[in-house]
Give the backbone structure.
Amino acid sequence: MAAAGLWTTPSDLARWLLEIGRSAAGDRGARLGRETADAMLTPGLGGWGLGMGVRGAGDSLEIRHSGSNAGFRGQLVGFPHRGEGAVVMANSDEGGVLVAEIVAAIAREYGWPGAAAQEITRAAVPPEVLESYVGRYTLPNSPIELLVSRENGMLYFGMAGGQKAELMPLGRDQFRDAIGGGEVTFERGRDGRVAAMTVGGERLPRAR
């Protein structure tokens, strides 16, 4: 197995993104069936279609997916109905933040709609407040568990053993996923302690 898993290139993935758009438009020469493309572009639980994160509608419909294995990080984003998108890869375990910055710069340059094109101003959050978010968060009736950790003065989250993404602070209890671009919010109980986090519209209570 090459490079700790399946080997592909940004160019190959970009061609695949274009094929999804062609299939969704009903192009008779497209490689995917129309029903498959529609399933990929229809958001379900947590804003996910068939294998892809989906948000927006019409020409602003956007699909995203990130990837990681040992020594590599990547991100693809596409607008199937516009025939536009980008795929960025970095050969580093810490390359996720750089990849996200490059994708955001492309989005600004080409005027893509939605949060991908927004510049983010990092809010100042005291260390003790960042520490209050650290812990395990579980999705009810599901094996999904997210771990929030604090490293080198910054907050990260991700699934155990998987890729970690920085949580960039927008304000108290409000963050943005530096890789996926989605908003992450923390909920506090009456005692002021963090009780849950919301990611992609899903509420994950903090494990006690």
